[in-house]
Request: fold
Amino acid sequence: MLLKQLCLLLALSTLAGAQTYPDISAQELLRLKGKVTILDCNGTDSYQQEHIPGAIDYLGGYLHLKSLLPRDKKALIVAYCGGSRCPMYKLGADDARRLGYTNIRHLASGLQGWKELGYPITH
Reply:
């Protein structure tokens, strides 16, 4: 039920002209490892099963993120979710934007695309 409500909220915010974020490829993200903060927006259960190494579990709410994100508001933040059709990344990206971060990207291929390339996963 909560997932349906979140998807409806995302759809409505998109219709209202919500912020969009430039895409970043999995290859580019891999090259930037250690120089980027990664937000996993798949939910805690999924995060506990598998996630991109170094990713932060986006638990929802910018107050949680405030303590985890770097002080530098120009730091690169990359949000992802399950795959190319998943809109959940916008929750984390929008919260980072609300906190004043200006360099936010979207891993459009998501976790599925990352795994398809054979890149490392943390279990």
In short: The chain has a mean pLDDT of 86. The first strand starts at residue 23 and ends at 24. The chain has one domain: 20-116.
